[in-house]
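Appendix B, example 12.
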Amino acid sequence: MERWKLYAFAAAVFAGLTSVVAKAGLKTLSADVGLVVRTAFVFGFIILNTLLWTGTGKTVLALQNTGWRSLGLLALSALTTTLSWVCYYRAMKEGTVSYVSLIDKGSILVTIALSVLLLGEPFTWRIGVGTTLILTGILVLAGGKS
């Protein structure tokens, strides 16, 4: 199996764990305070990961060699991540984690549309069928919860 597929499957497993563990951790905290605590830990873990796998010198060199466009797009990605996380944590604090997570995973539909429209990625019959199945599954599962 290609390495990117292993990473993608691992990401899915960890994302599933994240939702359940975070919901349990929000029992005594507001959604916003819980998100701050989580994000502080994420920040530390990402720095540690980068230092261990890339090293300080290569990281600094990579940052020096990148352009403002790349940094701006990553900043925009950080903003959209922040907005997503704030909304997700508020929904998770008030709602059922399995339903909140299900609806959140519907973001794949936005990702597919934007990757085709903005990045010029191909839209194949498999992606079309898969997208239809995902949308149908979300509507069936989320429609049953009131």
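The chain has a mean pLDDT of 91. Residues 35 and 85 are 8 Å apart (CA to CA).
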